[in-house]
Amino acid sequence: MTHEHIHQAALPTAALMFDGQVYVLDWPRSGDLSRTSHSAPALPTMDYATHLVNIVKFHCSPLFHLFDDTVFMEALHAHYESKQKPEALVQQLWFIHFMLILAFGKALTSKPGKGNQPPGAGFFIHAMQLLPNITILWSEPVQATEILCCIALYLHCIEHRGSAHNYVSQSIPQQPTSLTFNINKIQIGQAVRLAMTHGLHTDLSSHQVEFPLISRCRKLWWTILVLDRQMTYLSGLPQSVRDEDVTAPLPDFEGDIFRTSAFAMRTKLSHFIATIDRSE
């Protein structure tokens, strides 16, 4: 509309950038760390990695829960001090999670280049190469759901909204293939179902769960719901989770009134979006 008003002519088709066309995300066949190490991006020093993590916390934490600070930073120090057990599933998932957080950190601190890949793409693609199938993710629901949220939010931010809402590739193509046309999918809807299957949408305080995990699950659940509702709305699709099915209380960030209020406002906005979507 702005172009037509100024130039009195329609915007040329060649100038239109539809969903998934702003940036290109391609990678070769999936595999474990040993099979993809040749294409792995160089890890930053621990100090710079900590800086990038803090950048992500500063920009994203008031609105989204992408990782548990205490658990994540303990694993980060253990990784750089070579105290982790690489064969352990929790450590493998943490490394994937770490790659995604670094991708966010690079995206938030770098200017877009002249190429067709977004900042942080190297870390993101490496994380996707290492991502296991959903049956493995199912065994670590909290960490796996945090990973799925990171994937969906990163894709959403780089104008791959359809991919963010509908799927993230896990296929093993014979040739490098576009993210948008891979067959096997991990949906943000799967993140919702993964969380609901393990009861994150309920009041876990009555289930004899330790408080730190309860707090983490509440922050994660409301982040999932906010992302799902926003992406569903932008895709023009009906909402899938009803308010009456959710009994999990809003999270309380102890000692941080600003973050508690910001998170509450964000969830209320998602509620209004869902209400408008359901109204005729």
From TrEMBL:
Q: Which residues form the Xylanolytic transcriptional activator regulatory domain?
A: 184-257
Molecular function in Gene Ontology: DNA binding; DNA-binding transcription factor activity; zinc ion binding
Kindly list the biological process annotations in GO that this record carries: DNA-templated transcription
Name recorded for this polypeptide: Xylanolytic transcriptional activator regulatory domain-containing protein
Q: What InterPro entries is this protein classified in?
A: AtrR-like, XnlR_reg_dom
* Cited CDD domains: fungal_TF_MHR
Any idea which UniProt keywords this protein has? Nucleus
